[in-house]
Amino acid sequence: MIFNSEISGEQQHTTSPVVTGGSVIALVYNGGVIVGTDTLCSYGSMAAFKNVKKIAQISKNTIYASSGEFSDFQQVVKELAKIDRSALQYDDGVHPSPKDYGNFLARLSYKKRCKINPLYLQNVIAGFHNGERYLSLVDIYGTYLESNFITTGFASYFCKAIISNYWNENCTLDQAKQVIRECFKVLFCRDCRAHDVIQLAYVDAQGAHIEEPERVETKWDFNGFKSRANEKLHTQ
Fold first, then answer.
1. 3-class secondary-structure state, position 222
2. Whole-model pTM?
3. Which one from 14, 39, 62, 218 is the annotated catalytic residue?
4. Family assignment (predicted)?
5. Is position 14 annotated as part of the catalytic site?
6. Which of 4, 101, 158, 164 is the most buried (most CB within 10 A)?
């Protein structure tokens, strides 16, 4: 984002994100790639917007999600949509692959970073092309990484053990969904910028599919909570 200073007339760039989205978790499975986010955008430390969809379909076989400044996410969606729209207008049967979108976003992020006006995002691009699964991460500096699983935000700290224990790249779609749900249960309990309403999307040989938001099941009636065991222990 860019602001014009009324005092000096100079053009100024933002120095920190304002409205931000939380973690993204993406996994490959035996028939494609699945991506999960929650639906919360925070205004500073306030959970301000609780029904925000942070997954976008870029083309028939590519989906995009990110953590970070939500206005930058919206701008990236516009830039990627321009590429898809231009390819359709040529009408020559040639369409960008998911990897093309990933490479473009890496170059765009690097360009913005070099102009000291970065996109404050951790970007995840997932796709399925020519029978191959594709999953990549592009960070705020334009660094590009392909992997079989990706976590951003606090999921990078809290969820890798869950993924390591319960996921493998040949699991089914339902198994991959369950792993992501378990990750967001942990995030909701341990990350103050997380929400218990999540959205899942996956892409396979039939194309991209974005599901409606769902609420993860959480448990708060532990005996320790109900009996106030910790308080009793400290007052003995």
1. coil
2. 0.87
3. 14
4. Belongs to the peptidase T1B family.
5. yes
6. 101
